[in-house]
Amino acid sequence: MLGFHGAGGTARIMLHHSRWSHHAELQGFVVVAPQGTPPKPDEKPTFRFNPQLWNLGSPALATMTHQADDVGFVRAILDALPKQVNIDPRRTYATGFSNGAGLTFLLAAEMGDRLAAISPVAGLPSVQMGKPSRPIPTYCFYGSLDPLVPWNGGEVTSPWSDKSSIRPAVLETIQRWTHDSGFELSHQILQTNDALEEVQLGKAPTSAEMRYTLIHGLGHHWPGGKDVGVPVEILGPRIKTIDATERIWGFFQRYRLKEPGVRSQEPE
Predict the structure, then answer these.
(1) Which of 98, 111, 177, 216 is the most exposed place for a label (fewest CB within 10 A)?
(2) Domains and CATH numbers, the chain
(3) What are φ and ψ of residue 107, in 5° steps?
(4) Burial of 164 (0-12, 13-18, 19+ CB in 10 A)
(5) Rounded distance between C-alpha atoms, residue 210 and residue 177, angstroms
(6) Would you state the torsion angle of the CA atoms of residues 53, 43, 41, 235, taken in this order, to the nearest 10 degrees?
(7) Single pTM value for the model
(8) In this structure, how many other beta carbons lie within 10 angstroms of the beta carbon of residue 172?
(9) pLDDT, tens digit, for every residue of 146-193?
């Protein structure tokens, strides 16, 4: 399983604060957490002033990451990994937080034939990413009080540049992704209460589904993750309603590719 940190994050945060190391040891799977490129690669990365980033193809991120080919980077990791450890290439998954969620969507669009399922957390796809080659099983997570990825859209001020921009509504954006991926739109409520809303947004004949969980009262954080020390004023409130890591791994276990490089999958 590939895990991608958010802007200003690190591989260690992805492994330990999101508890992927714990789950990998408990469940017996391999987790790989790469690190992105900071704008000043010769200086120590910091969350605010020299954040490690993934290049999602936008002009700003391409410039800040020195045109890093992060899709090619991930391809190289997957090519090299079987030489280091015994893995099942039919069961390769990707998840990411924030900017790392954006990379997860991008990987689905560019190399979805190698991913059995994905789970972006607190991040969105963009139009320039293109369309996945098939309906890839997808499970998204969002916080209702996320100041950087607002559920209803609106003006957002970046904690890195202090510049403001208008963000689209989350549901509208992931509905477009669902449609463009080849899913049949369904919008079936799977669970709803005071803590969260879980919805199946799309389904496919292959048994693949697109679903999301909206956590009420959560800011820009990994659901159930440990505190990374960033002030609430920047990322919004932290609550531990659910353990996203546990839910994601449960979702991933339902899917495997029929064969790596083939644009289809079969249920577990």
Answers:
(1) 216
(2) 2-267 (3.40.50.1820)
(3) -65, -40
(4) exposed
(5) 10
(6) 0
(7) 0.94
(8) 11
(9) 999 999 999 999 988 888 999 999 999 999 999 999 999 999 999 999
